[in-house]
């Protein structure tokens, strides 16, 4: 498989300028669309019709809620089920759907646009390479790609909503309209990895109910796999040897993270009476499994996060920083990025000549991409954590770090300090949510077109490392 930037270097200057200009314009449209949706959502949530409070809510609370919904984070400063009216809840769930589905579509459009522009000047070999990279049937197949993503999203949400409705209506005896709205809201929130819930204690009341936690957890996993992986699994589920490298990485490492997270959380919290110590064995396993799943960027909680051991928070920080697969509803730096970084480290330690994963050699520019994304992410997390500690030192490092990584990964879990943070700290979280949602897409796609035709090279020299 050829490396895209290396191929770009063989294109003429006019082609590169055209691709770079169109790509930059597409990024601007993504940010402009996100901003427009954010302003609209904030305005609607500020209206008296959106909340039960007289005169509506403040600009900061509306902006925080709208950003959390649009970035599919799920972190809240107000109770979604108690403080917002039906109209307000509809606005929130529409923002969640726009944030999850919108970023998916825009990501697909960016990659398809890149393929289309390159195909106009490059040869058949490059067309086939780009089509393989974007997992599309044809270079110009933007419309089918968008339709597949939309159908996959809506179809999954309908199935999950149907299961939840039957449970809410037949088992919990909710009225038809209440059961239907609960089912639709939680299904959309789950697949888009948002984590918004209509209960004051989220999913705590359903911690031992597999017919509620099961469909929600499954929707979270599916949404976090990423569209390219899902579509390839549907098409080639009988021929795993033909799976692309991205699909292999996600399919192998996702269960490792889920099972590893479950064992880790259960081991530490097993006898914690404030979290899962009072459950039976099955209840503890189920609670730990759901909470491990939720760290993939969903934000639901079936146990009290604020009562967890500090060591559990630290382990969940790691899981929330990685989260799910690329081109999906998950945030964070993505599993593939960490896999490439780990493979690069192992190659260096073991003295290997090239970085390989699952029988494939990783292009050198991908090493730089992964390193850049990780460094930028860590830099922002550290900066945001320091600023919040300066503004609200009473909450301590463990809670603040958990909060920052949670919003950067668009997870939405909290130790219970969100609503009590000062205005400057909440503004930092708002910026972190937006960066966590848009950053990985814009940075990674931007890096893919950063290379220029090489005109000269500087002399090499090796500084001392370590």
UniProtKB/TrEMBL annotation:
UniProt organism field: Brevibacterium linens
Annotated keywords: Cell membrane, Ion transport, Membrane, Transmembrane, Transmembrane helix, Transport
A Gene Ontology cellular-component term: plasma membrane
Membrane association type: Multi-pass membrane protein
PANTHER family per UniProt: KTR SYSTEM POTASSIUM UPTAKE PROTEIN B, TRK SYSTEM POTASSIUM UPTAKE PROTEIN TRKG-RELATED
Location within or outside the cell: Cell membrane
InterPro entries from the UniProt entry: Cat_transpt
Major place of residence: membrane
Name used for this protein in its record: Trk-type K+ transport system, membrane component
Gene Ontology biological process: metal ion transport
